[in-house]
Amino acid sequence: MKTKEMVFAALFAALIGVLGMIPPIPLGFIPVPITTQTLGVILAGCFLGKKTGTLSVILFIVLVALGLPLLSGGRGGLSVFAGPTVGYFLSWPIAVFCIGYMTEKVWSTLRTWKVVIINFVFGVVLISLIGAPVMALITHTSVWAGLVGATAFLPGDCIKAIIAAIIAVQLKAVSPIEEKVQHS
């Protein structure tokens, strides 16, 4: 792994942490709040690609596990791995890898609408399909109730998917994916 990729991975882990400083919006009917951190996660996939993006999110998860209060609301430590948000949190590396993989596949014909679709399917939908059932298991509710409750995230997550796509396409020239494509 090149130094530049390691720097990007560290920067995006920091970005996701900074996005966690924005106060979460509790919903009341579901124990998982609305946060801006998924914007950083989705952007890591579509800007950094599958390898560097996944590494950035894994680094972030390790830092949280070590106790750094990087999750929204200042949470960190091993206790977050037993809470209702763990399914969402642990779905991030899978989502980033899938977003990065698909973005790399369409890189030569990159268009904002393509990245929006990739971000929606593998960022918004995949994270909910993993996070909601795990939340339901932990809170002893039905998976269906968890999935229905997770629909509250759809409007905001769709906006995040669009914002991440616009940023990634606008910054295409400096993306590690671009460098990888040019050297292939």
Automatic annotation (TrEMBL):
Gene Ontology cellular component annotations, sorted alphabetically: plasma membrane
Q: Does the keyword Transmembrane helix apply?
A: yes
Extract the Gene3D superfamilies matched here: 1.10.1760.20
What GO molecular function annotations does the UniProt record carry, in alphabetical order? biotin transmembrane transporter activity
- Transmembrane stretches, start-end: 30-48, 55-74, 86-103, 115-138, 144-169
Membrane topology according to the record = Multi-pass membrane protein
Primary location: membrane
The domain of life is Bacteria
Q: What Pfam families has UniProt attached to this entry?
A: BioY
What is its subcellular localisation? Answer: Cell membrane
Keywords carried by this UniProt record: Cell membrane, Membrane, Transmembrane, Transmembrane helix, Transport
Q: Which family does it belong to?
A: Belongs to the BioY family.
Name recorded for this polypeptide: Biotin transporter
Source organism per entry reads Fontibacillus panacisegetis
